[in-house]
Amino acid sequence: MKPTIATQRVEPPPVSDEMLVERTAQGDVRAFEELIERYQDPALRVAFRFVGDPQEAEDLVQETFLRVYRNAHRYNYSARFRSWFFQILINLCRDWLKKKKPFLFGDPPLVARSEPDPSEAIDRERRAMVIRRAIQSLPPNQTLALILCHYEEMSYREASAVLETSEKAIESLLVRARRTLRTRLAELR
Questions:
Q1: pTM of the prediction?
Q2: Which structural domains are found in the chain, ordered by start?
Q3: How far apart are CA 139 and CA 105, in angstroms?
């Protein structure tokens, strides 16, 4: 009897974001849909944390994707797609801020669940409100640096590309934001 070799299905390596945007520029709608699948949730989180309104966040994200689609042919391949994408989103958020007074930095809505202790839930909500207000009072660039580096876990290099500043500036923004928050949130300790 001849031994058989077990065949293993080898998955092709995932297509890079940069390749997807190149294919989008060539009119490949499926490539654009893949970019939407990859970036919709993180974009909604960033926009919502900045503007605090789920509908406004959705509008900003939709406009971001429209701009990516329309300008895919202008993408500069020396930059990471993720940086370019978030740069577009952040610029739209900044424009929104100039037009409206935001209530910055809420948490995304959660599905309701039963709380074992109502006083614990009230205390948790009070702390969250104090934190949101403290973050809301930060200058916009400090808020954006905090969202990108802390919540979206971007490196200083990535955040500096998105905010079009240096890594040292990102570090400085975060230091100032944390120092201010530490002072303002001392009552929670």
A1: 0.74
A2: 17-188 (1.10.1740.10)
A3: 12
